[in-house]
């Protein structure tokens, strides 16, 4: 399922001047925007000086549907549009936005953002250059424009399939949401980029009940895909069965152990470990400010030799992928950790300039109301040589965690958590009983030094990740092969007589 | 930065929003809806962040949005837009009407009865124009002073994520096809500092403190906020792990809030009617320790959770959720009340789109009589939690497991900082095992909890 080689994207020819381009230009067509307007707004943004200014136009249309108790209880559609204007002066950022795209409103916002600087006006570069960019999600019919009845069918099928899985499944909630985000970025250095970014996702949550016992399960997935994805590759039945399976399994879960022990992570979504333990700590803004536990560790060993971790925004159809980031920079594959050695940070324009490093195309924002900052795209560990079975067999007593809720990290002291929602005991090399959900806690800068085995089974998650930072949510992906961590703290409740794990 | 233009703009829009909301409702009804409800929101925000004495960001803007919910018999749908042009609004109404033909007949759907609708009278003290009264330089100075107080407090405070000053105002109008139209404005301002301390070994710790108020003159001083932020950060330096153990834990008010949040999720009507909460069906039963009294009150003047009416146009009220440990009431909106055969508690919270959810008013645990120091003094060995990490609470089963850091209690005193540990148990027992409640209730948001002690949890460590 993870395949970067099937060449689904086409590369545009090298740099061309904007005026000559004859492709569809959303904001030019719908709002009558012209290249002159962009120059005019940028000049207003630099009217009090400043080193750089950019404009971010966004038009977001979205649909969502929810079925509960086998009824389609809610359906909604909406649009939000606006323009955010940023002015950078040294380390200072001025920002203003407007949800009204009338020229006088944009000019007002530009002049407000301009107040961050205090000097003579600067002139933006004349003419824009559009960089070559990939086409990672070339949908012919964006799902937001597809027939809503087809989406109703998806959620109803999910409901039926989950209920049919087992009579103990008593409650099912299935939802579908999609969006199409059209963006235009224009910078005072001549940066120009446009993109049209589809995103779709299904979710199914179930509650299983028996006399005196309940449990929940959930599953979902999607990506920057068209509606047909859910009729072919990943059907509602696929997600529904997985959700129901987890709920039924949890009915028999026993208490999780407590304390430090060997932990095996299954492939795919458990990659959230990488996102929390190392990913955030490697975002350039924290390192520029020396507030990350990873600051100053470039070139140093931060993981076992078996670990190579990358952030890759260029994977076709993936939820975390982007043709260009929200500053107009093409995304790329960035090696964060290579054979255990810290190689680089994830940067945006501001951090790249202030730190004298290259812009890795990780400048992202939630919407036009937000200032961009370094963010992850799809973050994963490359596969190793170990067979997953051998990894399990190598553990005398430990935990095998295959599904997770979410996680959180304190980037300054490096402590991170992630919550297992499906996990099992490993006893004498065998997977035995399922255990209740438990939080795993560790220290980012050294957890990967304890990775002693890396599986050959890299998998990416199904496309459900949303990452929050400074109040901004962006879609991301994670992935990991089966790995073994020699020591990690598991937050269970088991008393001495239940597990042998208390120390 | 000047704020005059923004203020002019909101005053000019204010009169229009009421008319607009009512007009959209009329258009939906004219288009064939059997009931309709429209919300219009408009807001301004200002924020500045100063880091190491230098301005890092300045942000100033305003925005607005409109949302429509329509019913076609018992079928519901909703649409929203940030674009107020005639075309966009027409499309919004038309799409809502079309969508409402595709959803299912739900016998419990609908807007409230006319007799339920209304708005609290009198001044609820939710809005003060003074949050925007400071000139630009002085706003920056608030942020700078907050950070400086933290940086100057101790030589070990070596870095900072900054000091900030934020201000915002919001204006909300709700109208429906029973003729209800209501509106209110709310204001908000805050200062915060996020200092970073470094020990001799080079290990860093970060913490924060803040003050938030509806009026500038109720904000605590930047110097006080900065000092507390520094103290909270310094006490984390040199943190170690501890051995796995079962000990009493004490939650400081900021983290005790999360226990109250779990009770909220458990009594949320949406989880209750689906049986997705272990508190479903427990009204009249003892679910918490005797001394536990939990109140939700949307009517408190000046409160962060106060509003004259809820998300469906029903006057807010005071609801006793737990009395002497006995569950007295769920928290409900119109839909979940009908599903459960009960009356709404006026806790509907409405975003722009979708069906209304359930949100708190001013939601709090009634304080006890002991000081936090007295509570800690009674514990020979225990854990004082100052931070939780992660979201490991399962409301279906009550299973609870979270990352934590704080201070180890030894001999009734805070002895040394600890981190990289977990706290686990089951919420059913956690609520029953709240053995002490402090006297330090303070509202720093719509949810507030004093210091609490909980027994019987497992602390996971080495």
The CATH architecture of the largest domain in chain A comes to: 2-Layer Sandwich
CATH topology of the largest domain in chain B: PmbA/TldD fold
> Number of DSSP strands of chain A?
25
**If helices are DSSP runs of H or I spanning 4 or more residues, what is the number of helices of chain B?**
9
Q: Class of the largest domain in chain B in CATH?
A: Alpha Beta
Shape annotation of chain B: globular
Task: Describe the main β-sheet of chain A briefly.
Answer: 8 strands, mixed
Q: Using DSSP, what is the number of strands of chain B?
A: 22
Query: Which architecture name of the largest domain in chain B does CATH use?
Result: 2-Layer Sandwich
Give me the secondary-structure category of chain A. Answer: alpha+beta
Please tag this protein with its features.
heterodimer, A: PmbA/TldD fold, 2 domains, six-stranded mixed sheet, disordered N terminus, disordered C terminus, B: 462 residues, alpha+beta, eight-stranded mixed sheet, seven-stranded antiparallel sheet, 9 helices, 22 strands, 35% strand
How is the topology of this model organized?
The complex is a heterodimer of chains A (503) and B (462).
Chain A: E1 16-17, H1 26-31, H2 35-45, E2 52-68, E3 71-89, E4 92-98, H3 103-114, E5 129-130, H4 148-165, E6 169-187, E7 191-210, E8 213-223, H5 236-251, E9 258-265, H6 272-279, H7 284-288, E10 309-312, E11 333-338, E12 341-342, H8 349-355, E13 363-364, E14 373-374, E15 378-381, H9 388-393, E16 397-409, E17 415-427, E18 430-435, E19 438-443, H10 444-447, E20 451-454, E21 459-460, E22 466-469, E23 472-475, E24 477-480, E25 483-491
Parallel strand pairs in A: 5-7, 9-16, 15-24
Antiparallel strand pairs in A: 1-5, 2-3, 2-6, 3-4, 6-7, 7-8, 9-25, 10-11, 10-15, 11-12, 13-14, 16-17, 17-18, 17-19, 19-25, 20-25, 21-24, 22-23
Helix pairs in contact in A: 2-3, 4-5
Chain B: H1 4-30, E1 35-51, E2 54-72, E3 75-81, H2 86-99, H3 136-153, E4 157-176, E5 181-198, E6 204-206, E7 209-213, H4 222-234, E8 245-246, E9 249-251, H5 253-267, H6 269-273, E10 294-297, E11 318-323, E12 326-327, H7 334-340, E13 348-349, E14 357-358, E15 362-365, H8 372-377, E16 381-389, E17 399-410, E18 413-426, H9 427-432, E19 434-437, E20 447-448, E21 452-454, E22 458-460
Parallel strand pairs in B: 9-16, 15-20
Antiparallel strand pairs in B: 1-2, 1-4, 2-3, 4-5, 5-6, 5-7, 8-22, 9-21, 10-11, 10-15, 11-12, 13-14, 16-17, 17-18, 18-22, 19-21
